[in-house]
Design goal:
This protein has 340 residues and is α/β, with parallel strands linked by helices. The protein has twelve helices and 14 strands. The two termini are 21 Å apart. It is a peripheral membrane protein.
Length: 340
C-alpha cells in the first residue's frame, strides 16, 4: 500500500545539488542523497558536516539556497504541507513539554495527528510500554532524566507509522539498553515498509542498521556504499598493538613503519598504535620479531579488518566521528515538533 503513494520510478528520498549557507559558512555545498523505498540511509559525518541542515531541508524546516529535494516525488518547497503529512522526525534534542506527564505528551501528539481520543490514549499506552516508560507515565516530564526524555521524544515520533522517518542522531543520550531497543524498533518499521534516513555519531549504529551509507564532510558527499563497500575502498587490515611502556611508543612506531601501508595512528595516553598493513597475517611473525629485537614489551597485539572508523580517518582526517555536543537550540525544538 505504501509503495502506491510513490511516483513511478522515483526514490523515497531525493536530494540533488543542495546548497545552504549561513553568512560565510557553507553548510551544504552541492549535497546529493538518494534513498529507495523501505531502506535505511545512514548519513555519517563529523560535527559541522551538514547532516542536520540536510535533514531540516528534507523535512521542510529550512529552504535550500539552491538545488532540489523530493520526498516520495513531492518537492519539499513547493509541496511542503503534503510532505509533512508523510514524514516523521526526531531531532537531536528532546522536544517534549516538561509541564505535562509522559502519558499526556504522547496523547497530545496523537490528537495533533487527528487521532480519536480513544486511539490516541491506546497508542500512548503502547508506546510508553515499548520505550520502557510505563512506570513514569504519570510523572511530569520535568522530573525525567535526560535519557527518559529522549525515549519519550522518540516514542512521539511513532504515534503514527510514517511513510518516511527522519532520525537525526536518535540514540544520543541513550544507555546501551535503550540504544538496542531503538534499533529493534527501527528494524520493525523498515520491515513494514517505512523508509528511514538516519544520521548518527555512532559508527556501529550505521553498520547495524543502514542499507546504504553516505559520508559527508564540508557539506558534500565524499563516499557512499554499503559498510563493506566503504571498508573495501581503503583495503588491507589493521594491526593494533599496545606497548608496556609509554617510552617505547615512538620506537615501536619507527620499527613497524616499514610494514605500514598508510598513516600510523598513535594514542600516547593508552600506549596504543593502529597500523594499516597489507597481507598482515604473512608479515605478523616478522613484525613481532623486529619489535622483540628492539626490546619492545608488548601488552596486546591483534590483527583485524578495517572498520568504519578507519574509513573515516582515511577520508576525512578525523580518527573518529566527533562526539555529540550537549548544547541545545531551543528554537529547533519547536520547529521539529511542528514537523511531526
Amino acid at each position: 500500500m505504501k509503495g502506491t503513494i510513490l511516483m513511478a520510478n522515483r526514490p523515497a528520498i531525493l536530494a540533488e545539488s543542495l546548497h545552504k549557507s549561513y553568512g560565510k559558512t557553507h553548510a551544504l555545498a552541492g549535497l546529493d542523497l538518494i534513498a529507495e523505498e523501505g531502506s535505511v540511509l545512514g548519513v555519517l559525518g563529523p560535527n559541522g558536516a551538514g547532516k542536520t541542515t540536510a535533514v531540516r531541508i528534507l523535512t521542510t524546516l529550512l529552504k535550500p539556497d539552491s538545488g532540489h529535494a523530493e520526498i516520495v516525488g513531492l518537492d519539499v518547497v513547493k509541496h511542503a504541507a503534503a510532505v509533512r503529512s508523510r514524514i516523521g522526525l526526531t531531532g537531536q534534542y528532546a522536544a517534549v513539554d516538561e509541564m505535562l506527564t509522559g502519558y499526556e505528551n504522547l496523547q497530545m501528539v496523537g490528537q495533533l495527528y487527528h487521532l480519536s481520543a480513544k486511539v490516541a490514549k491506546r497508542r500512548a499506552r503502547e508506546l510508553l510500554m515499548r520505550f520502557d516508560l510505563m512506570d513514569a507515565a504519570s510523572r511530569l516530564v520535568k522530573t525525567y532524566s535526560g535519557g527518559m526524555r529522549r525515549r519519550l521524544d522518540l516514542a512521539a515520533s511513532f504515534i503514527m507509522t510514517p511513510l518516511i522517518l527522519f532520525l537525526d542522531e536518535p540514540t544520543t543520550g541513550l544507555d546501551p539498553r535503550g540504544r538496542l531497543a531503538m534499533w529493534e524498533v527501527i528494524r520493525e518499521l523498515v520491515a513494514a515498509g517505512t523508509t528511514v534516513l538516519l544520521t548518527t555519531q555512532y559508527l556501529e549504529e550505521a553498520e547495524q542498521l543502514a542499507t546504504q551509507i553516505v559520508i559527508i564532510d564540508q557539506g558534500c558527499v565524499i563516499a557512499k556504499g554499503t559498510a563493506d563497500d566503504l571498508k573495501a575502498q581503503i583495503g588491507g587490515e589493521r594491526l593494533e598493538l599496545t606497548v608496556g611502556h609509554g617510552s617505547d611508543l615512538q620506537v615501536a612506531s619507527q620499527v613497524i613503519r616499514p610494514y605500514s601501508s598508510g598513516e600510523i595512528q598513535i594514542d600516547s595516553e593508552n600506549r596504543h598504535l593502529v597500523v594499516p598493513v597489507t597481507y598482515g597475517a604473512q608479515q605478523l611473525v616478522a613484525i613481532v620479531r623486529d619489535l622483540d629485537d628492539a626490546g619492545i614489551l608488548l601488552k596486546d597485539l591483534v590483527l583485524r579488518r578495517p572498520t568504519l572508523d578507519d574509513v573515516f580517518l582515511s577520508l576525512t582526517g578525523h580518527s573518529s566521528i566527533d562526539k555529540p555536543q550537549s548544547s541545545q537550540i531551543p528554537m529547533a525544538q519547536t520547529q521539529e515538533r511542528s514537523a511531526r
